[in-house]
Request: fold
Amino acid sequence: MEIVYVLTNPAMPGIVKIGMTGQTEVKQRIDQLYTTGVPVPFEIAHASKG
Reply:
């Protein structure tokens, strides 16, 4: 089952990341994105299973 998510980041006000993952938890995806050079971790604004 896939999860559609909306993420925000305090270091990038006014910008959202919308994506989809096949992982069981959005937290796993956030952990992957945090290694891409953003200064602070993303926060989950919304997530729903599809």
Observations:
- The longest helix spans residues 26-33.
